[in-house]
């Protein structure tokens, strides 16, 4: 992990600079993972939080390349998530080899602060909070994304009482194989399996004293949705008692307790809770993931049946998402992922801030909502045929069904790009509305080292942030500069008379 003392020197010159579409106004906070800036979008004038994720120290050039490529793949999937309770990632990028995430600039109060001010939360209100959190997790799990670090610092309330879950997928984003080293020299655990550490022997990225990582995560074993159930159990323990299930002077000590120790009973802190909660939490906090609740919805409903049995329960979603590999393994299955365009990200930020950024809790009543996209991108494949340069309305072909619809022409303003998913690529495709009003589409994977290119509206080029390769989308994505050996792979599209843009084949 990069040393905190180096952050100030590395980023002290950033205020006043422009990163793509974002003007950095000032440094607002310094997190363990890197600094956070207040940034203003140069086109919309909207304010955002731009968060840098510091690179681990001691990486070779090859490891740095792997790390940045991993970040881009993970960030593209996180940016595609849209749920009323999830804090959205509106944009992401790399600046001077430093990856960053862009989120809405909203005032949030962490549940940890609420607990410190008001004490443990009422069991019924806690049930409603769990409904909201678990609905968001079920949605993310359906997309194949685990949170892996739920805690009272990244679950927050807005000023109007709406619940927000932040940092979804951040652990995987920060921990590719190149950035961690497994070592059993100091902390041997069961079966001699080692704790996951960074290159300096510190605990896993983004874990803090309030984190409650599942034992399999710390042991470097494959993780599934039950890993988030474990964290939910620890979160609930904290909400009900105001105490973490495990404490220690060092992160390694706390982590070792998560692997080996049994959580103290709730009665150690409170005598007024239903006795059945002890057995319920014991199941959620099982060291063996196969013995826990299988998914968040099952966990939330089981809790509600104990504390508010007369309330109508929503139907939870049993997510049959594939098990993800251990976090130390950078290889990840290909899955549907899309990247929001800048115009779509602006709409999503506005919606989140103004209306749908969470679930309103009023008069002690909480409801959960899932905000669907108006035109969700669908799984597509990479085409080997040449990309057509297509003008709106230039064909009368109308495709029946929506399986190949990438967007509507009105969704992609002139001189912008919209991402869509490609099943045969780790990176999304890009649909570009050129300044001459034509549409083209390409696989965003750079032909040099596999990083994802982004559309630069200022020079009208597709640019790779890893090694500065650039491509001209108006000339079949031919190489303009940098080390790329070949143009980008094209995706053949058709602009139909009904305003839809479809992928051919």
Q: What is the CATH topology classification name of the largest domain?
A: Transferase(Phosphotransferase), domain 1
For the biggest β-sheet, the strand order reads 1-2-3-4-6-5
Q: Between the first and last Cα atoms, what is the distance in angstroms?
A: 45 Å
Write down the domain tally.
2
Strand content: 15-25%
Q: Please describe the biggest sheet, giving its number of strands, its sense, and whether it closes into a barrel.
A: 6 strands, antiparallel
Radius of gyration equals: 23 Å
Poorly predicted tracts of residues: 1-5, 177-195, 317-323, 325-351, 353-402
- What's the mean pLDDT score? 76
Provide the CATH superfamily of the largest domain: Transferase(Phosphotransferase) domain 1
- What structural class do you assign from the helix and strand content? alpha+beta
CATH architecture identity of the largest domain = Orthogonal Bundle
Q: Regarding CATH, which class of the largest domain?
A: Mainly Alpha
User: Into which percent range does the helicity of residues fall?
Assistant: 25-40%
How many helices? 11
Number of strands: 23
Categorize the overall geometry. elongated
């Amino acid at each position: 992990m990069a040393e905190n003392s180096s952050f100030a020197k590395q980023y002290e010159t950033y205020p006043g600079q422009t990163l793509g579409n974002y003007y950095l106004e000032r440094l607002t906070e310094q997190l363990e993972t890197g600094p956070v800036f207040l940034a203003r979008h140069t086109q919309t004038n909207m304010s955002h939080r731009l968060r840098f994720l510091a690179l681990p120290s001691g990486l070779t050039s090859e490891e740095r390349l792997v790390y940045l490529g991993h970040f881009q793949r993970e960030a593209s999937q996180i940016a595609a998530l849209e749920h009323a309770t999830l804090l959205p990632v509106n944009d992401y990028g790399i600046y001077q080899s430093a990856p960053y995430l862009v989120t809405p600039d909203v005032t949030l109060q962490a549940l940890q602060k609420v607990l410190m001010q008001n004490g443990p939360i009422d069991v019924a209100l806690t049930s409603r909070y769990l409904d909201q959190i678990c609905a968001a997790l079920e949605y993310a799990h359906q997309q194949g994304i685990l949170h892996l670090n739920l805690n009272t610092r990244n679950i927050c309330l807005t000023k109007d009482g709406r619940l927000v879950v932040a940092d979804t997928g951040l652990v995987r984003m920060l921990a590719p194989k190149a950035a961690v080293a497994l070592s059993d020299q100091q902390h041997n655990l069961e079966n001699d399996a080692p704790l996951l550490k960074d290159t300096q022997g510190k605990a896993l990225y983004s874990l803090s004293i309030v984190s409650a990582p599942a034992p399999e995560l710390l042991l470097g074993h494959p993780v599934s949705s039950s890993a988030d159930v474990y964290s939910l159990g620890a979160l609930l323990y904290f909400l009900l008692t105001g105490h973490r299930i495990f404490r220690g002077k060092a992160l390694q000590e706390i982590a070792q307790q998560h692997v080996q120790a049994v959580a103290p009973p709730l009665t150690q802190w409170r005598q007024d809770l239903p006795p059945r909660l002890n057995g319920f939490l014991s199941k959620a906090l099982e060291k063996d993931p196969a013995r826990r609740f299988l998914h968040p919805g099952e966990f939330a409903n089981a809790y509600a049946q104990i504390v508010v049995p007369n309330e109508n329960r929503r139907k939870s979603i049993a997510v049959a998402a594939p098990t993800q590999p251990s976090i130390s393994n950078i290889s990840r299955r290909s899955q549907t992922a899309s990247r929001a365009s800048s115009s779509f990200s602006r709409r999503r930020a506005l919606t989140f801030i103004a209306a749908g950024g969470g679930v309103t809790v009023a008069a002690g009543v909480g409801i959960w909502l899932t905000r669907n996209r108006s035109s969700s991108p669908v799984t597509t494949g990479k085409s080997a045929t040449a990309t057509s340069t297509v003008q709106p309305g230039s064909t009368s072909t109308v495709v029946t069904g929506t399986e190949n619809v990438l967007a509507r022409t009105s969704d992609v303003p002139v001189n912008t790009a919209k991402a869509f998913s490609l099943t045969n690529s780790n990176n999304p495709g890009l649909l570009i509305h050129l300044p001459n009003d034509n549409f083209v589409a390409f696989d965003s994977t750079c032909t040099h080292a596999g990083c994802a290119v982004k559309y630069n509206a200022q020079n009208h080029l597709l640019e790779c942030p890893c090694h500065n390769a650039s491509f001209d989308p108006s000339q079949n994505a031919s190489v303009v500069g940098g080390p790329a050996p070949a143009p980008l792979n094209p995706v053949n599209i058709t602009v139909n008379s009904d305003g839809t843009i479809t992928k051919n084949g």
